[in-house]
Structure formats: structure tokens, C-alpha cells
């Protein structure tokens, strides 16, 4: 039930923010035009709310990634229709790469040319994957810090369904968090298939 409530919370927050953020100077049109009004929405409260979500999902994803033994990082399910699915390591790496790509867009940065949604092939061991995962959440944290700052540019992301005219900083952040929570659910299933109780379900 916790995952369901959190999932709904992310969706609702994204829906609310899509209207609010256009008033805070975080749409593509307004971020690139400093003469426009920043409106009345409290960017500080928006950031505070997103930091709560970020801390929660980061804790759950990272502790789940830590709980899987290094010897199981190449695990994929075999019982049922699982042909072509990602290994556990690739699940985490994909989640991390998506965080980086969307955070870069939210900060107006050029996305790294050496990664795609699958993440860099050089990130292989458990420790490397965990370091990459944590750095991706730190990147999202910097994007949250930029909410309401008209000096920080914004870019549309090629992996986002949002067209450039509808891209907002909060929408990109919300998209990353929703995506992370989706893969968290898959990571939990991989743990359980290996007889491991997810940290969030332990007494």
C-alpha cells in the first residue's frame, strides 16, 4: 500500500505542478525570458515538497540496491515470460541514467554523449553501480535546488514525452521520480525471487 500511495502522490504532484510551474518562471518560455513575471507560487514550498519525495525514493531504491548481493547483480528471472528483460544491475543502471538525463535537461545542461538510457557500459560492479545510482539522485537534488531560479536554463529532454513547449523543470523532476519508483517495484521483485526481503518490508 505504501508504494501505491507514493505512486499516486507523485502523479498528483506532477499534475499540480504542471499548472503551477508555468507561473514560477520554470517553463522553457519563461526561463529564457528574464523579463517575465515569476508569479505568486512559492518556489521554496515546491522545492521542499520535492525534496521529501526525493529523500524517500532515494532511500528505498538505494537500500534495495544495497540489499542485493554482488553475485546476484546479473540475475534475471527465468520462470515465466522474461525473455530480454534487464538484469538487476541494468535495472539500476537504467534508472540512474534516466535520472541523470532528466536532471541535466532540468538544469539546462547538455546531456552526456557517452550514455543513453541504459547507462555507461563501464559501470559494472555493484560498487560502481551504487556510486552511479547515488550520483544520479544528487543530480536530481541539484535540479530541485534550481526550481524558481530564473538564471538557470531549461532544456527539453529527448527521452521525455513532453514537447519543448510544455516542458517545465518540475515536470522533468517528477518524471524522473515516477520512473525511479516504477523500477524500484521491479527491483523489489528481483530481491524476492532471490529469497531476500526488501529493506522497506522488514520489521
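Q: What amino acid sequence fits the structure above?
A:
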Amino acid at each position: 500500500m505504501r508504494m501505491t500511495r507514493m505512486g499516486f502522490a507523485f502523479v498528483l504532484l506532477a499534475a499540480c505542478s504542471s499548472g503551477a510551474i508555468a507561473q514560477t518562471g520554470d517553463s522553457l518560455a519563461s526561463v529564457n525570458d528574464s523579463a517575465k513575471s515569476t508569479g505568486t507560487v512559492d518556489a521554496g514550498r515546491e522545492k521542499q515538497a520535492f525534496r521529501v519525495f526525493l529523500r524517500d525514493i532515494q532511500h528505498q531504491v538505494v537500500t534495495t540496491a544495497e540489499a542485493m548481493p554482488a553475485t546476484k547483480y546479473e540475475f534475471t528471472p527465468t520462470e515465466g515470460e522474461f525473455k530480454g528483460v534487464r538484469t538487476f544491475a541494468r535495472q539500476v543502471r537504467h534508472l540512474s541514467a534516466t535520472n541523470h538525463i532528466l536532471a541535466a535537461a532540468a538544469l539546462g545542461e547538455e546531456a552526456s554523449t557517452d550514455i543513453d538510457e541504459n547507462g555507461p557500459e563501464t559501470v559494472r560492479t555493484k560498487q560502481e553501480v551504487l556510486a552511479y545510482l547515488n550520483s544520479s539522485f544528487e543530480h536530481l537534488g541539484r535540479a530541485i535546488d534550481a526550481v524558481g531560479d530564473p538564471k538557470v536554463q531549461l532544456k527539453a529532454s529527448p527521452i521525455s514525452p513532453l514537447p519543448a513547449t510544455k516542458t517545465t523543470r518540475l515536470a522533468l523532476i517528477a518524471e524522473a521520480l515516477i520512473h525511479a519508483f516504477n523500477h524500484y517495484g521491479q527491483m523489489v521483485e528481483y530481491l524476492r525471487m532471490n529469497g531476500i526481503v526488501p529493506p522497506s518490508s522488514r520489521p
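Q: And what stands out in the fold?
A: Helices lie at 2-20, 28-31, 43-67, 88-106, 126-145, 169-193.
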